[in-house]
Amino acid sequence: MSTSSTRLPEGRYGRSSDERADRTLKAVGAVLGVLLLGLVGWFGYHYVAQNEISAELIGFDLSEDAVKVHLEVHKDAGVAGYCTVRSQAENGAEVGRADFRFGTDATRIDEVVTLRTTSPGTTAELVGCHAE
Question: What InterPro entries does its record include (predicted)?
Fold first, then answer.
């Protein structure tokens, strides 16, 4: 019994266009992968290296017209900057937002700041810190 083959004879018609497309797609994928990796690395470096001030919200105390926020700030010596803190009401509306400036030469600042609110706040959130 004989079997019929649907394959083309080897070497008779040249390379298949599918093989060329596969090789092109692999090359384009490799280039795009390297570019994406470079972009992620660049953003990561600038986020870590350029961020001269970082802070952590340790805790907060609520009252009718203010929120006392305990901040721990880490920064480079001689760098001045500010941290933005906000408070929200129970319904999610923002009731207070303020920038607190840190200009001392200390590299670690542990401070309690008072954020005035327009109505009773239920949260305190550290929005971010920036160098001046």
Answer: DUF4307 (IPR025443)
Distance CA 43, CA 32 (A): 17
For 55-91, the DSSP string reads: EEEEEEEE-SSEEEEEEEEEE-TT--EEEEEEEE-TT
> For the segment 80-127, what is each residue's pLDDT rounded down to a tens digit?
889 999 999 999 999 999 999 987 788 899 999 999 999 999 999 999
Chain mean pLDDT for the chain: 86
The topology under which CATH files domain 52-131 is: Immunoglobulin-like (2.60.40)
β-sheet bridge partners, residue 116: 66
What are the structural domain ranges in the chain? 1-50, 52-131
What's the pTM value of the predicted model, to 2 decimals?
0.61
User: What is the Cα–Cα distance from 118 to 126, expressed in whole angstroms?
Assistant: 18
H-type alpha helices, 7-65: 17-50
